[in-house]
Amino acid sequence: MLRTVRLISVVLVVLLGAVWGVAWFGRAPGESIADAFLRQVAALTGGDMPAPSAGGVQLAQGVSLGGPFTLVDQTGRTVTERDFAGRMLLVYFGFTYCPDVCPTELGTIASALDAMGPAGERVTPVFISIDPERDTPAAMADYVSRFHPRLVGLTGSAEQVAQAARAYRVYYAKARQRDTTEYTMDHSSFIYLVGPDGRVRSLFRPETTPEAIAAAVSAQLRAL
User: Fold this and answer.
1) Where is the Thioredoxin domain (predicted)?
2) Which residues are CB-contacts of 116 (< 8 A; sequence separation ≥ 6)?
3) Taking the CB of the first residue and of the last residue of the chain, which one, N or C, has fewer CB atoms within 10 A?
4) Residues 6+ apart with CB under 8 A from 22
């Protein structure tokens, strides 16, 4: 049995290495190695991976992100995904004590909306906290006002936040700092483009430019 397991493991490693090699040498101009790898895997499994949109990463066929949630906005009002029905959203998960990445990505969202001009009014920016212990509605109200006048801040109980994070497959974890009671939050950092149906259409990696996001969102709006 152990020999069989080892043999299967070796075969899988060799297969993945071969797929990675094919992805490396066969990637399209401007395509990242990760996107090329996912495209090759989708092809091997019989799925088709849509071509990436400008500045964004399309999800492989069969992969679904987004869905129902119940949270509290910066005014203290309980909201669900139904409150945003029919709207295009740009969603980011982070926390107000974040020293660098979160402010940068929220600033990128604001700049992308401004770059879109009047069309940007059709898109709602949303910031969802993964640190409900500290991010009260009042804290969120102060924080989101620094980035964009239409930015919606959402928080809630630990259970409500966990539900929303699961729907978007967001990783987050509390990280204690050495020799202190203070903590920070480790978390994944993607901007999600959510369609009027509440499902993610595309996502943007950290440091994607506002221009690229604006182009991708504009293309999605034209397709509605």
Assistant:
1) 43-222
2) 123, 214, 217, 218
3) N
4) 40
Buried b (16+ CB within 10 A) or exposed e, 129-150: bbbbeebbbebbeebbeebbee
| pLDDT tens digits, one per residue of 57-110 | 566 555 689 999 999 999 999 999 999 999 999 999 999 999 999 999 999 999
Helix axes 210-223, 101-115, angle to 10 degrees: 50
CB–CB of 172/93 below 8 Å? Answer: yes
Q: Which residues are annotated as a binding site for Cu cation?
A: 98, 102, 187
Instruction: Give the model confidence (pLDDT) of 197-206 as tens digits.
Output: 999 999 999 9
The packing angle between helices 2-26 and 33-44, to 10°, is 120
Q: Which residues are annotated as a binding site?
A: 98, 102, 187
Cα 37 → chain centroid: 20
**What would the two tokens of residue 178 be?**
């050495």
Query: Which residues are CB-neighbours of 137 under 8 A, at least 6 positions away?
Result: 72, 73, 74, 75, 76, 153, 155
Asked if residue 158 lies in contact with residue 172, where contact means CB atoms within 8 angstroms, the answer is: no
The CA-atom distances, in angstroms, between 45 and each of 12, 48, 154 are 14, 9, 38
d(CA 44, CA 68): 32
pLDDT recorded at residue 64: 81
